[in-house]
Predict the 3D structure of the following.
Amino acid sequence: MLSFGQRSEEHIMKNTVNDARAAKAQLLEDFETLRANAAVGITRVGGAYGIKVNIPKKLSNDLVFPESIDGVPIVVEVVGTVRARN
């Protein structure tokens, strides 16, 4: 398991943006509460695409994010207040 903000290079494959979109959709489906409490987007991780989850504070220990979904890496970072970009 990765700590918040840590990236695991060993899990990075050459993912396409479509792979990342599918993984993002799966993550949002699996973690429904993220929609209201976090910002979830697609980012570059190494030379591939990954999922970036920005959360306002460290969540309960009961909520554990996977390191990847179908080979697409997930990076979680505590960023404070999450706001929509204008």
Notes: The beta strands are 39-45, 48-55, 68-69, 72-78. The two ends are 34 Å apart (CA to CA). Residues 38 and 56 are 7 Å apart (CA to CA).
